[in-house]
Description:
This protein is α/β, with parallel strands linked by helices. The chain has one domain. It contains 16 helices and 17 strands. It has helices at 7-12, 21-25, 51-54, 90-95, 101-111, 139-144, 159-164, 175-187, 189-194, 209-218, 254-257, 268-271, 309-320, 332-338, 340-358, 379-390, and strands at residues 30-34, 40-44, 61-62, 71-73, 77-79, 81-87, 117-123, 131-136, 169-173, 195-201, 226-230, 240-244, 249-252, 283-287, 302-306, 324-329, 365-366. Strands 8-7-9-10-14-15-6-16 form an 8-stranded mixed sheet, sandwiched between helices. It starts with 6 loop residues before the first helix and ends in a 9-residue tail after the last helix. The structure holds flavin-adenine dinucleotide and iron/sulfur cluster (2 copies). One iron/sulfur cluster (SF4) binds next to helix 8 and helix 12. One iron/sulfur cluster is lined by residues 7, 10-11, 16-22, 42, 53, 57-59.
Amino acid sequence: MRQPGSVKxxxxxxxxxxxxxxxxxxxxxxxxxxxxxxRLRPSRIGAGSDAEILQACPGAVARPNSESAPLGDAVWGxxxxxxxxxxxxxxTRFRAATxxxxxxxxxxxxxxxxxxxxxxxxxxxQAPMRSVWCLSGTPSQLLQRAGSRYGxxxxxxxxxxxxxxxxPFAVIAKPCDAGALREVSKSDQxxxxxxxxxxxxxxxxASDLGKSQAVLDEYKLSETxxxxxxxxxxxxxxPTRIETHDGRAFQKTYGEMWADESGxxxxxRCKICxxxxxxxADVAAADIWPDASPDGDDEGFNGVITxxxxxxxxxxxxxxxxxxxxGADITPRQFDTFQPHQVRKKHALAARLRGMDAxxxxxxxxxxxxxxxxxxxxxxxxxxxxxxxxxxxxxxKLP
Length: 399
Ligand SMILES: Cc1cc2nc3c(=O)[nH]c(=O)nc-3n(C[C@H](O)[C@H](O)[C@H](O)COP(=O)(O)OP(=O)(O)OC[C@H]3O[C@@H](n4cnc5c(N)ncnc54)[C@H](O)[C@@H]3O)c2cc1C
Ligand code: SF4
Ligand code: SF4
């Protein structure tokens, strides 16, 4: 299969997820910007070769971390542990997206002095419906910024600022971002030396901003009215809550927010995502609702997958320090029942990529993610993707 030869080609083929890495690696050439469709994409501001970026761009390459783990599963990949867990601090558990595991683990890295700061993302203070990258240096900053953000996020645009500090740091990001970080750390000594943890959420896909805009439209609000846009948290999953500068508040349950799948506006790269389960990370955290559907709110329980020796050490140390509480073990087949959409996607991917290739589209390189092993040779998937590419549904323009 043909691989993309430039950032422009990554974007045009629908392979870009807007991670922001190209801005961090070449700020003189690329700047992240919103497209009219509400996607974050690199906008060209200078000329030059993209060769170095394409070594790590998630639209060009996807690989797991390079360790061999003691346990493994064809769908879920290599792991040390699959277990229920939650933040021991009730406030963290309440305010976070699920059970606060990502915040608790990152806070442990800060408190223990292993990391000086965390690169992650948060609501844009100027436009809270949107997300911006941020560096959190204290557990309380991390906690203020906890919770899942369902629109575009370009956390890796902050990578250069993180590297410039030349201090140990961890990253909380999406699985595709984790893959990019691992690839960069193969050639960037400063990153290899300073990156002490890569923590991700298991990811069903990132909506474009139109999904959030549709919520504002429903309430007849404009973006400038919005003082707070919290996608979930304050309970598990907690409501989507909007507050306005003039003191009004609106909220929807998670079920109401996600009832109509046709309005999810999930980006193309997510539909062909080879590693939404965080195999490049040290630790991945997920929801564990039966059939991926919450039955009301609860106190917050994450399913945690430790992927590397460092991730496993972090999990144990956070439990010993009292930051994390561990629950029951989880088996890969139980995880299947919590994430049936992920299992379906993993099995369909090889066919989708063949469909792209048959339509003449470039495709990312992938290794170690077992797409061939899981291939169900679904002719309908392949033909459907081919048709979508031919109809221009994958095509995007540089902003
Ligand atoms: C777009 C998206 C899709 C998801 N799909 C699934 C799914 O299919 N199945 C599943 O089990 N779980 C999914 N989740 C994960 C789930 O919502 C929780 O994030 C996860 O369980 C971790 O919970 P937590 O309480 O440990 O996180 P918290 O302790 O609240 O920490 C969340 C951290 O993630 C960072 N973050 C939030 N949103 C983003 C974002 N968009 N990009 C980068 N970083 C971000 C925040 O900065 C924060 O540091 C998804 C999350 C997102 C953002
Ligand atoms: S996926 Fe990331 S690195 Fe690749 S083109 Fe898009 S923003 Fe740039
Ligand atoms: S589904 Fe994959 S490509 Fe999309 S945001 Fe999640 S990890 Fe990234």
